[in-house]
C-alpha cells in the first residue's frame, strides 16, 4: 500500500480562522444531507458486515478523508490500512536509507505537519522530533504515541512495531482517534480495523506456530530491534550481556564483548542469529561471519519497511517465515 501523499488543502486559508472561510474550504457536505448520509453509512455497513473473506471491494469513504501525518513508515503503513479511503496518510520517514535513530528533521518536515488532523508517532524517544514538530505545526491534532499507548518508559526498547500486542493496541488507538475525528465514518473505520485483523491473520498464525514449535530455543541479536518479537515467540535471548548493553546504549561493544559473542556462536550455544541489515559497521558483519562459519542460521530483519514490501504484514510475514525455517518449525 503506497502511502498517499496529500496536498495541504487551503493551507493559506487555514491561517485565517474565519468560520465561514473554513466551511467554504472544507469539502464536508452541508449539514442538510447528514441524515441521508448517516442512513447510507448504516445500510452500507449492513451489507459490508458479512465480508469476512477479506476480498470484498472496499467501500467508498462516506465523509471527508482525515489528514494523517505519521513519523515513520513502520506505523505509516498500518495507519494507511486503517484509514483506507477515509484518510490521506503522509509518512515523513518513508525511505529505508534513513536511520530513524539518528534522524535530524529538515525545515520542510515541520511544514509537513501543517494541516495534520491526526499525528501518529512511535514515541519512547525514537522520534522526538516528530512530537515537537507536531506540537508546533499542528497543535490541535490528537497524537497517537505508541510509547504512551503501551506505557513504554523513555529509554525503554523503542522498537514497538515488533511487539505484536503493541501493534494491536496502536491499531485500536488509531481507529478510535479516526472515528472521533470523523464520526460519520465510524462504520467505515470499524470495517477497516476488521480488515486489518484479517490481513494480520497469517502473522498471528506464524507467531503461534513458532511459539509452539520453538519456544525455549535461543537467539542472539546484533541489535535490539527484534527483541519484543523474540519475547512474544518464547525465544531465550542469549546475546552476551556486555554486547547487549552497548547495543542498547548505541555505543561500541568492547573487544571482550565481541569475543564473548563470537565464542558463543562458534560453540553453537545460540540457535539463531538475528541480524539487522540496516545496521552499519564491521562488527555485525564479523558476527554474521562467525555464525555462518559455525553453521548457526542467520535471519535478516530490518528496522524499517524494506523497499519492495507493500504492507506491514507482508514485511513481517516474510521475516517470520525465514525465522521459522531457521528454527526448524514447519509453517
Ligand atoms: Zn533500531
Automatic annotation (TrEMBL):
Task: Write down the PROSITE patterns for this protein, in alphabetical order.
Answer: PROKAR_LIPOPROTEIN
**Organism's domain of life?**
Bacteria
Q: Which GO terms describe its biological process?
A: metal ion transport
The keyword rRNA processing belongs to this UniProt entry's keyword annotation = no
One molecular function GO term is: metal ion binding
The record's annotation in InterPro entries points to: Bact_metal-bind_prot9 (IPR050492), ZnuA-like (IPR006127)
Q: Where in the cell is it found?
A: Cell envelope
* Signal peptide range: 1-23
Q: Main localization of the protein?
A: other
* Any single Pfam family the record assigns to this protein: ZnuA
Do the record's keywords include Signal?
A: yes
Q: Which UniProt keywords apply?
A: Metal-binding, Signal, Transport
Q: GO CC terms on record?
A: cell envelope
Q: Where are the transmembrane segments?
A: none
Residue segments, region Disordered: 33-58
Q: Can you say what this protein is called?
A: ABC transporter substrate-binding protein
Amino acid at each position: 500500500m503506497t502511502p498517499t501523499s496529500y496536498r495541504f488543502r487551503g493551507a493559506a486559508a487555514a491561517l485565517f480562522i474565519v468560520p465561514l472561510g473554513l466551511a467554504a474550504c472544507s469539502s464536508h457536505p452541508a449539514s442538510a444531507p447528514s441524515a441521508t448520509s448517516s442512513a447510507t453509512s448504516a445500510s452500507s455497513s449492513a451489507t459490508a458486515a458479512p465480508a469476512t473473506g477479506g476480498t470484498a471491494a472496499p467501500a467508498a469513504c462516506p465523509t471527508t478523508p482525515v489528514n494523517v501525518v505519521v513519523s515513520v513508515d513502520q506505523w505509516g503503513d498500518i495507519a494507511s490500512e486503517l484509514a483506507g479511503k477515509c484518510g490521506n496518510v503522509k509518512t515523513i520517514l518513508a525511505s529505508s536509507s534513513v536511520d530513524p535513530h539518528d534522524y535530524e528533521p529538515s525545515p520542510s518536515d515541520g511544514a509537513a505537519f501543517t494541516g495534520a488532523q491526526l499525528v501518529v508517532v512511535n514515541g519512547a524517544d525514537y522520534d522526538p522530533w516528530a512530537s515537537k514538530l507536531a506540537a508546533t505545526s499542528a497543535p490541535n491534532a490528537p497524537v497517537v504515541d505508541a510509547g504512551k499507548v503501551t506505557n513504554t518508559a523513555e529509554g525503554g526498547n523503542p522498537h514497538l512495531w515488533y511487539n505484536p500486542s503493541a501493534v494491536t493496541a496502536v491499531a485500536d488507538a488509531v481507529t478510535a482517534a479516526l472515528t472521533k475525528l470523523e464520526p460519520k465514518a465510524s462504520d467505515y473505520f470499524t470495517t477497516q480495523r476488521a480488515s486489518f485483523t484479517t490481513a494480520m491473520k497469517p502473522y498471528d498464525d506464524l507467531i503461534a506456530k513458532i511459539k509452539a514449535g520453538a519456544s525455549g530455543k535461543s537467539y542472539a541479536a546484533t541489535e535490539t530491534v527484534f527483541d519484543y518479537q523474540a519475547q512474544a515467540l518464547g525465544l531465550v535471548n542469549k546475546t552476551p550481556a556486555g554486547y547487549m548493553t552497548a547495543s542498547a546504549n548505541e555505543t561500541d561493544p568492547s573487544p571482550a564483548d565481541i569475543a564473548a559473542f563470537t565464542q558463543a556462536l562458534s560453540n553453537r550455544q545460540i540457535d539463531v542469529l538475528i541480524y539487522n541489515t540496516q545496521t552499519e559497521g564491521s562488527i555485525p558483519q564479523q558476527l554474521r561471519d562467525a555464525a555462518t562459519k559455525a553453521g548457526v542460521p542467520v535471519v535478516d530483519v530490518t528496522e524499517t519497511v524494506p523497499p519492495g514490501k507493500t504492507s506491514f504484514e507482508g514485511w513481517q510475514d516474510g521475516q517470520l517465515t525465514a525465522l521459522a525455517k531457521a528454527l526448524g518449525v514447519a509453517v
